[in-house]
Design goal:
CATH architecture of the largest domain: Sandwich
Number of domains: 3
Structural class: alpha+beta
Strand order of the largest sheet: 7-13-12-9-10
CATH topology of the largest domain: Immunoglobulin-like
Amino acid sequence: MRYTTRETTFRNADGTFNTTSELIFTPTLQDHRTIFTCQVYHLTSKEQVIKRIILTVNYGPELVIHYRTSDSDVFLPLLKNFIYVEHQSFLELNCTADSNPASIVIWLKKFWARRGGIQLVAGVSSSILKKMNVDHSDSGDYICRAHNGYDSKESALTISLTSDFGSSFPVRSITMPIFVVSITLMLIWCCKRKGWCGPCNSGNSKQNEHRGRSGECSTAEDVDVQKKITTSEL
């Protein structure tokens, strides 16, 4: 049980009584701005005595990031720590900090050569990062950081551009290396398959002669090599 009460009553020297009632609990974020009411009843009083108290709870920031990809759209909660956007598209990120007192909220972009990142925009209780035309230079890791006198929090986010092939892979970071490796492997396979490379086309015919059918060269190629060796010996 979150709330407990404790009441004490003692008699004064003049015969009157004092009664005290205590409400005991541990405040949480949900208790901020909660109204508590103390009511006093007595047989000799025509009206009850009512005292209201508004509770103020001080706490550190809790971050929530919303986004939209059009200036006319409504903001949606960002449920993951990454987002894919089209090249030259619109992107707006709103980082909000729920705290008391209000927090300073900062957007930063991380750079490997700059410890802690570079500050982009800042605000009180919230900060908006807007990109009118997302470019390749806008992709990367971002941080929303908030702090007040009680605590500090940060949330990381990665912005990636969708590939030109229509998939959701980041451009130039994943698609291009896979493409290059695939073409390279295909060329090597064709080279070996057609006999364009390898020991069959090397200049050392003597080694090819002794390789025979156990090597990578075909029988027809061995016959051609043998003819060349015989002609040169004559």
